[in-house]
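Action item from last meeting closed. Structure (202 res):
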């Protein structure tokens, strides 16, 4: 890890700690940091990713100025369906994000997905794995717990962003202290508390 990357991670850590302090209330002091920092980090990187994605969508579909090389004219496509599909495919190219120092966030690690999935009953089928050789279909991946859901998101982000390798702590080991209801409440608080999120970026 070079000096620039280390400085970035140190600055991010400071921001996360400030925001985490605002969520301390109902969590045991010895363990809350491991859980809340992970949740706030996921919200932070997801919002940064979504902001960049919105910028790109504007460039692809709205800004037709001569100096915008990213514009995708609707008339180049046979139908709205084809056009929208092409735009959405382009939005999932990681180079557009990493070029602007935005962490690449896989779909199953994005905050809106986590928020929606955390509200599902435990045992709900989330997706299917790629089938192994000789299999007609892959195995179902089911929601085991909200801590598993969060850990899976952290693992995917770490896997896709080399500078984060070995940096993100998993929260499953603290499940004894936090049940699914409490974790779901933490997710709701982080989602709905605008002041908390301002604490991340100021």
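Sequence:
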């Amino acid at each position: 890890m070079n000096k620039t990357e280390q400085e970035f991670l140190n600055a991010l850590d400071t921001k996360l700690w400030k925001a985490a302090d605002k969520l301390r209330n109902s969590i045991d002091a010895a363990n809350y940091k491991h859980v809340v920092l992970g949740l706030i980090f996921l919200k932070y990187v997801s919002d940064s990713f979504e902001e960049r994605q919105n910028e790109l969508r504007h460039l692809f579909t709205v800004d037709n100025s001569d100096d915008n090389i990213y514009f995708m004219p609707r008339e180049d496509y046979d139908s709205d369906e084809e056009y929208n599909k092409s735009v959405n495919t382009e939005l999932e190219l990681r180079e557009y994000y990493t070029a602007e120092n935005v962490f690449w966030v896989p779909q199953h690690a994005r905050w809106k997905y986590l928020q929606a999935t955390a509200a599902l009953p435990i045992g709900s089928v989330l997706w299917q794995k790629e089938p192994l050789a000789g299999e007609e279909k892959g195995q179902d991946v089911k929601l085991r717990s909200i801590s598993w859901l969060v850990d899976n998101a952290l693992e995917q982000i770490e896997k896709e962003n080399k500078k984060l390798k070995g940096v993100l702590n998993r929260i499953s080991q603290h499940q004894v202290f936090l049940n699914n209801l409490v974790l779901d409440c933490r997710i709701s608080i982080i989602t709905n508390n605008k002041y908390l999120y301002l604490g991340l970026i100021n």
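Note appended to the action item: Confidence is low (pLDDT under 50) at residues 194-202.
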